[in-house]
Amino acid sequence: MHELTPYLTQFLNGFAYSMLLFLVAAGMSVIFGLMNVANLAHGTFYMIGGYIGYSVARYTGNFWLSLLVAPVIVAVIGSILEMATLRPLYKRGHLPQVLLTFGFVFIGLDLVKWIWGADIRSIEPPAVLAWSVEIVGQGFPVYRLFLIGFGLLMTLGLWFLLERTSLGAIVRSGVSDKEMAQGLGINISAVFSCTFGLGTGLAAASGVLAAPVLGLFPGIDFDILIVTLVVVVVGGMGTFRGCFWGSLLIGQLDTFGKVLIPRFSLFLIYMAMALILVIKPSGLFGVEER
Amino acid sequence: MKSSVTESPAMVVRYIVLVLIVALALVPFLAPKYVVNLLTEILIFGLLAASLDLVLGYTGLASLGHAAFFGAGAYTVGILAVKVQCTSVLSAVPAALLVSIVLALIVGFFSLRTTGIYFLMITLAFGQMLFALVHKWTELSGGSDGCSLGKRPLIQLFSPYFTVDFGDYRHFYLVALVTVLLAFLALRGLVRLPLGHVAVGIRENELRVRFMGFNTFAYKLAMFVISGCFAGLAGILYMYFNAFISPEQLSWIMSGKILVMVILGGVGTLYGSILGAGTLLLMENWLSSYTERWLLILGSIFVFFVLFAPEGLVGIIRGAAAKWGRK
Question: In this structure, are B120 and B54 located in the same domain?
C-alpha cells in the first residue's frame, strides 16, 4: 500500500460528495438565477426526494426506478408549490418569498418525521454497483465511482440544457430581462414553475443518489442546506461555473476536514466562506450585484 | 371635536398600556406559579423577538441566525458559573453582554459585506456554525447534555433588608418584567434617534442614503450589534430563569421560531414582538399537550401569515380599529 493511498481514497470520496453537492447547488442556483429566490427549502426537497426514493426502492426493489420516480414526484410538488404560494408573492419583493420557503422547512421536517419516523434509513445501492474495486492497494466502493461519473454526466447535461438548447435560451432570457421576454411572447410564469420544478427535482435526485452513502434522517435537510449555501456563496450565486467549482472546493475541504480534524471539520468550510466574503463578497465566479 | 377624534386613540392606547403594565406587575401576587412562569417566558422571548425586529423591521436586514446571540448570552452566564464559579450577577451579566456584542460584531462584519438574500443565508450559516461549536466543544459547553447554571443567585440590595432571589419565581418574574420594560423603552428610544431614522432610510433605499454621505455599513453594523446585545440580554434572562440551556436552543429551529414571533406580531412595530411571542408560546403550551405535530403547525402559521397577513396581528388589530373608528 502506497503512503499516499489514504489521501487518494479521501480525494475520491470528496469528489463523489462534491458531485452530490453540485446537483443540489445547481438546482438552487438555477432557481435563484431566474427567480431571485433563495429557496431555503432546498434541503427539504433533497430529504423528501431521498425518502420517496427509499419507499420506492423498498417496495419495488429497484434503485433505478426510485432514481426516476422520486425527482419527478418532487418536481411536480415543487411546481405546484411555486404556482400556489410563491407566485402571489412576486409583486411583494423577495424577502416574503424567502421567508415562505423557510416556513416550508418546518412543515417538511415534521411531515417526514410523521410519515417515515425519526430512525436513520438508507437505500441499498443497486446490485450492479454494490462491489469494491481495488485502487492502489485499497478497496473502494464502485458506487462512489458511479456517483462521480453520473455527476459529471449531469453537469454536462445541465450545461447543454441551459447553454445550448432553446429551452435554456428561454430561461436565460428570463434571467436577463423578464419584461422583454414576456413581450416576446414567452409565458414567463410557466417558465418560473418549470424552473422551480427542475431545481427541486435535481435536489431530489441528489437525495436518492446520496442516500446509500450519507443515509437519510430528519435533520439531513438542514445539514445539506447549510453546505449548499456555503457552496453557492463561495462559488457565486446564480452562476453555473461557480456552482461547479464551489462544490468541488467545499466537497474536498469538508471530506479532508472530517479526516484531519474530525470534531471541527465544519469550521473549515465556514472559514473558506468567511475568507471569500472578505476577498470577494460576490463569490469566486459571481458578478457584482446589480 | 375634531381634535378629540384624532387624539383619543393615542390616549386610549396610552391608558391601555398603563393598565397592562400595572396588571402585569400584580400578576405574581394573584396568579399561580404556572401562569407566572409562562408570563416570564413570554416576556423574555418578547424581548428576543423585539431585538430581531430592530434589524428586520427597522433596518430591513433579515437575520436568520439570531438564536446565536441569545445562546451566547445564556451560555456565557452558565459557563462562568460552572467553570470559574463566578456566580455574581454584577460580573456575569456585563461579561455575557460583552460576549454577545463581540459575536455580533464578528458575524455582522462578515455578513453585512453582502446584502439581501446573501445576508440572510450567511447569518443562517453563522448561526449553525455556533450551534455546531457548542455541540462539539463539550469541554466548555457540556455538548449535547446542555449547560446547567446550578444554584440561582441572590442579590442583596441595602443588605440584608432587601433581597432579590433569582430562584424564587415571583422575584424573578418582577426582575424580568422590569428588565424587559426598560429594554423596550431603550429600543423605542433608539428607533427615534437619528440612528434609527438612518436605519429606516437604509431599509427603504440604501443607495440614496449612501449618496447622502452616510457610511451605511457602519450604521447597519451598529444596528446589528445593538440587536445582538439585546438578544444576548434575553439569553441572560433565560439562563437565570430556566437555569439550563441546551444546544438546540441555538439551532435554526430557534432562530426560525423568533422570526415567526416577529412576523406573527407585526414587523417593524417592536411591541408586536411581545404580542407574537405571547401568542406563539401560549399556542405551543396549549397545543403541545394535544399533538406532537407542533412544528407542522408552527410552519403553517408562518406560511399563512407571510401569505395572507404580512402585517401580522398588529396589522389585523389596526385594521379592525380603523374600521371601528369609521363607524
Answer: yes
pLDDT (0 to 100) of residue A34? 77
Domain of B5 in residue numbering reads as 1-30
Question: Does residue B168 share a domain with residue B25?
Answer: no
Going by the DSSP 8-state scheme, the letter that residue B144 receives in this structure is G
Report whether A221 contacts A43 (CB < 8 A): yes
B32 min Cα distance to partner chain A (Å): 33
Q: Cell match 434609527: residue?
A: B196
d(CA A110, CA B298): 10
Q: Tell whether omega for the bond before A218 is within 30 degrees of 0, i.e. cis.
A: no
Question: Which residue in A35, A107, A254 has the most chain B C-beta atoms within 10 A of its own C-beta, making it the best mutation to test that interface?
Answer: A107
pTM, full prediction: 0.87
**Closest CA in chain A for residue B109:** A278
Per-residue confidence band for A290, with pLDDT thresholds at 50, 70 and 90:
very low
Residue matched to cell numbers 453520473 = A150
Enumerate the residues of chain B whose CB falls inside 8 A of the CB of residue A226. Answer: 124-125, 128
User: What is the number of domains present in chain A?
Assistant: 1
Count structural domains, chain B. 2
| Residue B94 CA: distances (Å) to CA of B171, B178, B184, B236 | 21, 17, 19, 10
Q: ipTM score here? A: 0.84
Question: pLDDT tens digits for B187-243?
Answer: 999 999 999 898 988 888 888 988 988 998 999 999 999 999 999 999 999 999 998
Say whether both B218 and B248 belong to one domain: yes
d(CA B301, CA B67): 20
CA distance B232 to B227: 9
